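Quick note —
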Amino acid sequence: MNRKDIPNAISLFRIVLVLPVVYFLLAEKFSIALILFVIAGASDALDGYLAKRYSWTSQLGSFLDPLADKLLLVSCFLTAVIMGLIPAWLFAIILFRDLVVAFGALAFHFIVEKFQGTSPFSSKLNTALQILYLVMVISVQELVSIPEHWLSFMLYSVAATTTVSGLEYVWVWGFKVWNKKIGE
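Predicted structure written out below.
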């Protein structure tokens, strides 16, 4: 393994952490779940920083990083819904947006042209807020007291940024398809 592979190794590490995080959440061992989740969340920032800072980007990394994010976040949100920690409607919004983006990217790649996209700011903000919201939800179970209005604010912030980032992907890709069709 050379240095250029470090971001991919970090993404793989994040994928490996998904099962223990979910296990400890379901076992209601919130302290351990929180520690592992924070490590996984921080690893997302670290692999992105290293890939950009040192140009350690790769085709594999452009697939692994978002896959690791989605596996971690969707698994944790689903687990939180099952445990009654967050409302199911928020998970539905998150899952719908992720499915639209994933299938949109695949369709774009195979029907229009090779997909080489970078995440828009709204998507990065959404991921950060989803991570922060889950940290808050897990923390409030047995570690700290967080005012209910802060949790509500984060809940609706996640719902809003999830919706906006999904719409932004559809808008940007829609215009790319439109411009491609007009150019033909």
